[in-house]
Amino acid sequence: MMTITDQTELLDGREMPVFGFGCYNSYGDEITKAVATAIETGYRYIDSAARYGNEAEVGAALKQFAGKREDLFVLSKVWPTAYDAAEEAVVTSMKELGVEYLDAMLLHWPGTDEARRLRAYEVLLNLRERGLIRTVGVSNFQEDQIEVVRRQFGAYPAINEMEVHPGYQQNDLQDFCKERGIVRIAYSPIGRGRYQDNETIKSLSGKYGKTPSQVILRWHLQRGTVPIPKSGHAERIRENADVFDFSLTETEMEAMRGLECNGHMGLDPLTFNG
Ligand SMILES: NC(=O)c1ccc[n+]([C@@H]2O[C@H](COP(=O)([O-])OP(=O)(O)OC[C@H]3O[C@@H](n4cnc5c(N)ncnc54)[C@H](OP(=O)(O)O)[C@@H]3O)[C@@H](O)[C@H]2O)c1
Predict the structure, then answer these.
(1) Among 37, 188, 211, 272, which is best to mutate for testing ligand 1, by the most ligand atoms less than 8 A from CB?
(2) What is the pLDDT of residues 7-51, one digit of tens each?
(3) Is 52 assigned a catalytic role?
(4) pTM as predicted
(5) Nearest to 96 by CA among 69, 131, 128, 63
(6) CA 114-95-187 angle, 5° bins
(7) Are 219 and 166 in contact (CB under 8 A)?
(8) Which residue, among 191, 190, 207, 187, has the nearest Cα to 249 in the 3D structure?
(9) What is the distance in A from the centroid of ligand 1 to the CA of 115?
């Protein structure tokens, strides 16, 4: 049985937690308190991004952590419109978050300008050499865009963060990343609350005495994706983390697989430029 502090291996030889806390769409005291509650609950990976516009408030919670810095995994992302000034973007995120290094930095979206994307990726690799970033990864990248990175730099990105929830499983992209050892982070992992009334999930919920969100988060863990649920409410932050004391059977995992319906909620990675 896993625990919230378990780690998964990264291609660059490092490790990251198997479970994280999302910081999107929450501001001011709410996000500071939410991140502090998450850390107190046992979450060790904090999923931040410059684009969320709240890194200083997230940083205020990180400062309250009484443990060792190396026990936290702080991830941020560079937004495509900052790709031509990627170093400045990284330094700004570090400053706002109040950290001396980032455990991981991702390119937030591929964007349609391949040359610009690769230049930004190279900047992140250089910053890794200089010790400002520990792990370099991507988000919302498709198979061919990931292959271009490998051809250009000789190694796959260690992480691909992508939209994954029961109605949008991205199974081909998942398999592609898994076969290459790329850690798959699932964003919008509970589909922003849209599965509360799903019959398959509700029946598993009844069987295990767990909420629909807990069933979905457990499903992520068993498929090997790293879920990063966000909540601004302390009780939900704790609820979402309470998923390490039950397991879905193989038949139940299959039933969850049957919920795939191309239910994409987010932006289109092939056209979105930031
Ligand atoms: N890389 C990317 O492009 C990208 C894109 C989107 C998101 N992300 C990351 O992924 C994280 C999570 O994704 P997300 O915020 O889009 O969606 P999510 O985590 O699937 O869902 C968050 C929503 O669900 C509600 N919620 C949380 N726990 C709940 C529970 N136990 N029961 C019922 N409702 C619950 C929250 O409301 P309350 O806050 O009111 O509790 C919030 O409205 C983000 O915060 C961000 O870090 C990354």
Answers:
(1) 188
(2) 999 999 999 999 999 999 999 999 999 999 999 999 999 999 999
(3) yes
(4) 0.98
(5) 63
(6) 50
(7) yes
(8) 207
(9) 32
